[in-house]
Amino acid sequence: MRFLLFLTIFVSVVYxxxxxxxxxxxxxxxxxxxxxxxxxxxxxxxxxxxSAPSKDLSALYNNLGSSxxxxxxxxxxxxxxxxxxxxxxxxxxxxxxxxxxxxAAMGAQKTEEALEAYRQAMLADPNNANARYNYEIARxxxxxxxxxxxxxxxxxxxxxxxxxxxxxxNQDQNQQNQ
Length: 178
What we know:
Blueprint: H1 2-31, H2 35-48, H3 54-70, H4 74-87, H5 91-107, H6 111-124, H7 129-144, H8 149-177
């Protein structure tokens, strides 16, 4: 029984180490601006570390997201940052991943999603000045675009209601003329 427990722990440590090694190789490629290669190593590390400590797994997902972001693959980066947020166990890691997710959403022109991600980053770490700054930029950008989807939907409903009222008035007038 002890042997089986030791073997399980040993295998887990070796897997975690292999995942960490893959992450380190990914970091080397990332610093060399070889983002596609870095992403491959981060994915390799993630596949090995599925049951590894969440802090390491969160870091790998965050690094994967960063390498995808650098390749302008914003949607995939957003997904990686989301997984980093889910895997995080510390507020600082969560805040960092949420902030990065906001940046990816902005890159994908998803301003409302970016606002939510920045808000989550600020809630996790109220001292995250970068998230606060980017939140304000995204908020202003959304205002310039004419507001959120909800505001646009309300405007569309008002236009439809106005058109229906005009149609009703025309029908009433036609009936009076007959």
